[in-house]
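Sequence in, structure out. Go.
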Amino acid sequence: MTGPAAARWHNLVQGRLDEMERLQPGRGALGPAFWDARATRFASRMSVASAAGDPFYRRLRRATRRRSTVVDVGSGPGRFTLGLAPHVASVVAVDPSGRMLDLCRRQARGLGLDNVTCVQGRWDEVEVAAVDVAFSSYVVTLVADGAGFLAKLDAAATDRAFLYLGAYTADAVLDPLWRHFHGSSRQPGATYLDAVGVLRELGIRPEIEIVEVASRVRYKTVAEAAKEYRDQLCLPDTAEVRRELRGLLSHWLVPRGDLLGAPLKSVPAAIISWPAGRRRPAGAGRTGLTTRSPLNL
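Output:
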C-alpha cells in the first residue's frame, strides 16, 4: 500500500514530468535519447578529477574498502564510478543511456581500470548482484516511483546505501527567468526532505549530512550559456528566444576568472545514508541531521 509520502513524491515528480512534456513533447519521458544527447556535455562538466573535491565522494571513500563492491545507479559518464574504482574491488555503473556508458567505458580503459562493469537500463528494469555499497547521485527526483527506486537501492546493498541530492531548489534561482518566458512558476519538484519521508515510510531511518558544494558550471560565452539555459527552461530553439535569453543572461551571469558562472558560488547538498537491509518499523525514532560545513552562498 502506498503511503502519503510516496504518493506525494509520485505526484510531485509526475507533475513536473507532465509539465516538461507539455512544453516539449517527448521530453517528459526522459528516455535514453534524452540523456544520449547530453552525454558529452555531462562528461565535460563531471570529470573524474573533479570528484576528488566533492564531499559525497569523500563520504563514499570512508564507507568503502579495498574489497568493497559497489553499484552506482544513474552513473552517467562515470564521475563517481571511475573515482572509486581504483580503491575498491569492483563497481557496477547502471544508466539508461548507452552514450553515457560508452563514455564511462572509454574513460575506464584510458585509466587502466578493469573492475568497472556497465549495465544499460533503468534501475527498475535491470538486475544486478548484491553489493556492499549502493548509491545514487541526483537521479531519484526524476523517478515517479520513488518508493520502488529506494526500496531496490536498499535491497541491492548489504552494508550501506547512499543518496546525493540538492538541499535547495534550483527553481528558486531560475524562477525569474522561468516566469519571464512562461508567465508562472514551475511545477514544484520533489526534494531531499520528500526522499527522507519516503524512506521513513519504508521503515528506514536515514542519516542526513548537509554539505556545501562549489558550483562547477562555467561558460566561455553568453551564447554557450544560453544554449544550456534554454534546455533547462524548456524553451523552443528559435532565433527570437536565443536573442532574448542572451540579453537576459548577459546581466545574470557572473564573471569567474576568464569564464562566466551562475550567480551562486556554491550550493547546499544532502548526503542521505542508511545501513542497508535493516528496516525498522516506519515512524520509529528520529532522523539525524548534521551540517558538515557552513553555507557561504
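Check: The first strand starts at residue 69 and ends at 73. The chain is about 40% helix and 20% strand.
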